[in-house]
């Protein structure tokens, strides 16, 4: 098989999970702009996600967020998804929107609040049992706003204790993905602020605990692909929350702010053996001002393009230049792949998969946007609050 | 008059404006935690602000935010304030919370939206006429999230045109304070992102247009006191929006994150002749998790302490060491003032002003917190949305 | 003329100035790694620069740095350059390497040091007269390391005074380009830290004073293309010092760290009418570990590629999408140009200019690297210190 | 014993190690400004360090840097130090100033260079045997400047292998302190860029491997005290390299840029049981423009003041407020200690230790500065290069 053929084969196996909440409304603390046609129910979110998969062919699963996607019968929801050609993916917990969580959840000074938070996480594992989801994704908004507000170290002890209880509840084939974030909503300390903290906790928990890298959760100047390479080397990269940012956790479409960075990340994934189902490739974005479904399709395509470029790197030439200490030559090999226009290749891949080569045009022609704008009238549009 | 006496005299003339919205609920995009006793009306906000002034003696004015503080009769509102010992201060416009403003306000590509935005600003000047406010504070959320989304330069043209119309409407003794901000809620470009842009617009508008420095609106590493010194040198420092931050626009209590920076800022104010009524010293903060009124009292006290230290700098010794090129000596003179515990001095100042030396304790003893928690039940608590 | 033909025509007129000092050794505070074949004299630097122009066709001028390129006869040096097919470009002053400049140069508290610094700048204008250079590029290392070390505002007064004297000395057709930089080598204040400060000084000086944007001199998160658009709108963009950075002023090859940013900058240049000789496009880089001449060739090619992409933006489609408020559509138009592989186009451009389509391969085949390594033995290699 | 007495007792046991290289010349890549009286030999550095200890009483050890402090007889050097009242401290390796290290040292692609680097580290352990030093401090300048330049992951493998060999050579009671740094001198990747990477390596090496926190080596916005608390919780905090910064690794006097941060760090040290000899408190600074010995004395005093404030925190009141979820109350307890002027307390401590209460004045009166300026004439002043 030629290198190009191998790249195409790999691209056909790609899977990018889309998040149910990205189909709903989102915004900043200043304003949430509502959009026409936004889903009112978890089922309608799945309907939209199914369109993304229909036109891209590589978005087969949908992450749920509890309680935003709470239903009475998760098995029925899973069946609903499968009837539409997609499957339920990771279960995302939420321990930041209840009034009790003003000072934290699993790290809260009050044991009663910690109990409540852990119970919610255990409920999420119950849901995983029902949906068949493999991954429990944990992001904690826990932290403090003011120096002295709470005991930084005691909060780590509480975190470790809560995580251990949830870890113990994980079933065969289930995993816990621990996400880190520099800041927001907490502004002085965050209880899992960096990959090192997440990694240290995962190490103590055991092999089912893995670190998830959200590409928007780092300090300025952080080399994310280095972290990716390191976590793969340590066997602790559980997955990605993809998005992009210029400043903070902007949650823009992945690849929109720094496509070269996304390529470098995907190169380290490929180089480190991470282009496997063991690493979950998920989107986690906010489409505050742009149309949501096309934005998600575009994001999936951006991941595909970065992946294609990463797969096209002439690794033998690269290794040769690196061994020779040829700084410019090695850089040129990498840049040659990056500078390649891979869109024709991806059009071929799509055609070979029986898809329209232009997912966005196909989506537009489908009339789905007009249909949901007309039909989804009344009710409560989904958003972060519900 | 000794230096200490001069410092005390100056401290007694200090005026810190508190923002009506800081008495209401606020939060992050993740959650707004409601608090007991939060005002439901502009009048109740003024009641709370009056307590802050009662106990600190240096918070005589209250900034309004339109439409959050919209009332039928602004003259009556002004009278309401004065009856409680405070006055209405700057009028803050809001051109970011209407659905029309999804892609901007005064910089929007659609002239109809720009018209609406400018009309709102003109209405704010009408309100200033009614309230007797001197300052129109303009912060624009305008910007773009994605490269290419709009024409960066055309947006500047629109901005200039809109500002000029509003400037022309300003009456005798009225001013326009133009605020800049690096990012948020826009994530790719912001139409007034830095002091240079605000300054360039003010220059073209005329002497009534001044720059306002929000201490949380800069890129990491920006030397804010340098900007303060520069704007004072240029005669264009209209005022401050005080708050503090560790990461982005965290809107924590001023002086909480970096008290040394606040001192350095106040030193440049004093050194540059900016400790006058021509510079408006305003708070602009969010008390998301802490009790609001005590947080505002504490913030006012933090400004007082930084000011006291700045006033205590031995400027003659400093100038001597600077002239001599004595790096360590000059730094030591500044640090000597900073390291001084000025709380006893401020207690004296308060006692001489007929106040309790400990404003927070006096507030606690007043029973106000319990009273408003008991009385302000029902209705719609004030927040950023209303 | 088709758009493609127009783009090609524009690309043939492009001019990127290379800096004499980039041909010499450079490094960090930790180590300067010497390389074989590095020039010992200004003439040898010109020899190398002539190779870059020979193979790229778009690097016709060479910036000098005084005193590093001090010679007895500048007219002879200019002739030397022209004999080799290049011309002398901007004159760069140096007021940071004399022991007298420990606490600054033009902003120093001691008038004698200021006099010395201004005299040096005046000497640079004398050199411009002799070389026929149009631009005096001024970068000041001036600043302070410790709060209180010197009077921030007085330093601005001194700066203004010194600049005014030099401005007065400029002849017909000569310009002063004022560069700003956030930090380094000063660590607390820098006397020209941002574009706003440079702009304010240029405004007061007059139309011959223009701002120069070094792409590595900003705080993290700064939107450089916004500054470019703003300065063009104000008629104050004098030129660029191109390089790239991940963290601080890394001085890597332009386009190496964030090629998408370089494209966005060049798009604003094109859109704002800045692709003219009035804007000087200069490199200012350090090739600490990579071979210098190929690195400079590669950098010139990176600028070409970004320019080609910027020229290929379908501006009519872009304007339409922007007017329509089509966020995704407008972004897609821009990204379509960015994602295009313009290397074939540039190979055509080079062939039409009578050049080898692959400048790096042509350089390698030329044997120049081996020749200078063999011949330039002994003597003192050029570097920042000489 | 009262709390104050306990604080005083603790302050009397404090030990801050000063670095031999801070007594020599240093600078930026732009210029090294030489100073009068700078040592020419390791012995003269020890003479200066002895003055710092003489006047502060809490700087009993001096870190060496190999090869800058290479001597023929380290036992004799240790004796020389003890004769002057100080002892030799940590041995700092240098694998960045030899031409071979252009592309790295212990991570270099060429095994011969790696061998050389490891041999140097082993030599450093030999020196520790001779000097009786406990700690080998390892900072690696290793990294890459351009994407693709080398294989990020292979470099980690090489690093692990090299460290393991050196670890195996450590004797009884000897430790390896692994330092991390975000960037500089490498600008794309750094092989030990963050505490997580250092921690992961130390974990695999064993208990004698500990992480050292240089306070200037983090990305903007990083919460250093959180890292300190975490490393203490993990039992992996080996020590500090103290300095301060506004932007990057500015290496200013510790406490000069953000004294509140230093206090918060020292509070976490105290709270986490880190105020013990197991944690090495070292300075690592550059006094580029200020007089070196007084700057070091001042730095030691800054550490003392931050420590004193940290010791004065009313931990019982703090814990109570934290447990009660009293955000403002808990913050106030911390700030109360920070706002205390501890200089009188430290004067008392010094007097009780038989020292002059004002170390800087005592140093000035000693005539040492004049003496060394007069005597140390000729020879080669010490600096980073020798």
From TrEMBL, chains A, B, C, D:
EC number: 5.3.1.-, 5.3.1.14
Superkingdom, natural source: Bacteria
InterPro entries: L-rhamnose_isomerase, Rhamnose_iso-rel, Xyl_isomerase-like_sf, Xyl_isomerase-like_TIM-brl
Annotated GO MF terms: L-rhamnose isomerase activity; metal ion binding
GO biological process: L-lyxose metabolic process; rhamnose catabolic process
Keyword Nucleotidyltransferase: no
Coiled-coil features, chain-numbered ranges: none
Residue ranges annotated for the Xylose isomerase-like TIM barrel domain, each copy included: 49-247
Keywords, ordered alphabetically: Isomerase, Manganese, Metal-binding
UniProt-recorded name of the protein: L-rhamnose isomerase/sugar isomerase
